[in-house]
Amino acid sequence: MICPNCGMNLDDDAKFCTGCGQKIEQTGPVCAGCGKPLKANSKFCTSCGLPVGAPSNSTAAPQKTVSQSIPQKVSQNTAQKKDSSKLIMGIIIAILAIAVIAILAVFVILPSLKGNDSGDSNHTQSSNTEIAEATTADTATSETTVTTEVPSTAAASSVTTEAAISEVTEDASVTDEISPDDYLIANSSAEEIDTSDYSDFSWKDLCYAKNEIYARHGYIFKSTELQEYFNSQPWYKKNKKYTQNPTLSDVELKNVETLRQAELDAGNGSLYPLDGKDQN
Question: Which of 39, 128, 200, 259 has the most crowded Cβ, counting Cβ within 10 A?
Answer without folding.
Answer: 259
